[in-house]
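As a warm-up, study this chain.
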Amino acid sequence: MNRKNQLDMTHGSIFGNLLKFSIPVICSNFLQLVFNAADVAVVGQFAGDASLAAVGSCTSLINLLINLFMGLAIGTNVIAARHFGAKDSDKIQKTVHTSIAISIICGGCITLLGLFLSKFILIRMHTVEEVLPLSARYLRIYFSGITATMLYNFGSALLRAKGDTQRPLYILFSAGLFNLLLNLLFVIGFKMNVAGVAWATVISQTYSAVFVLILLIRETDDFHFDFRKFAIDRESFIEIIKVGLPAGLQSVMFSISNVQIQSSINQFGTALIAGNSAAVSLEDFLYQIMNGFTAGTLTFCSQNIGAGNTKRIKKEVVICVLCTAVTGLIAGSLFYIFGRQLLSIYTKNPDVIEAGLSRMAVTFLPIFICGIMHCLGNSIRGIGHSVMPVISIMLGCCVFRVFWIGVIFQMPQFHSPFTIFVSYPLSWIITSLVNLIFYLYYKKDLK
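Now compare it with the structure written out below.
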């Protein structure tokens, strides 16, 4: 087997392998968010606050509709990594071709849903009339490119399953530059407003999908993709569904609560919507910086379960939790300290900046708890218990946030943006504790 673009996590230094895997993932996530933030900044600076609010009001809805299928990409990563650890060439091949087929089929389904239901759902989310037409236009164009997004995510999940995190980074970097140039051309040059940002995203996502597919076609190991074998293998499909569907449901539960939160934010007007959108964009940087280690945990646990090296799993989880917590605490503190300067990248409106700071003051310092929450959840999922993280998310984030917004927020004395924002750190604490209990329970059975 060609080992040029592989990282075997079943041997060697745990911390060293974790860094080798995680640093390119962190760079990839960081670059992706830099370019996504550039989208928001271009809209805010050159198209106005209404356009910025229009893009921001779509974020939670986009996540809701695509996260179910993005969870299947996690299933792809877990199953492919497990077979890689077990050195099972035949099952790796079946997983590769099944995953690509799933990505294309699911992408087409999401596109149809997005095209037909965008405006209706935006209205149900209490999107203000001022930004509704722009939001609906942005959303329809965005969903036309979802198949390419799915293909890239599934393809990069396959590459990460064998420890290859560098080449997805190169693809993402070039696609991000391409996206930024198109943004400047469409929004500033052609005055296309939110439609320009949406089309730039679709084109750059297609670019990424094509290149990751080329990489898989050119692979000389078990991860080689051949169009002649394009099919869904029943056994591989069931394996991916068993791991990926619960992961997708977990993401959907997050998104349901976020949609409800976004609906509540939409009641406070354009300035808060725009400021919240800018703060969320910055918050995503913190999530994805920590996500490098949580993604490493998923692949590490899956490979070692396949190889039967359960002792390494226990050590790795401790190392990953510490790396995630330290990284999140440092990054969250720095972002909060320089919050006003960072928000000014998106807008010069002082009201919007103050609205963004109101969210940052509540969510940025404790965001390391969110990283711990995901790290423990991926550990449980990686060792083969994909349902339990869903239960913890359902209790800690979905049920709690729905209750908080539906009951506490509705009380006149608590009907404020602060009450909305504080639901995030409270839900992270609850979910982290539930995940810790599940992990300690399953850890004693690892043999």
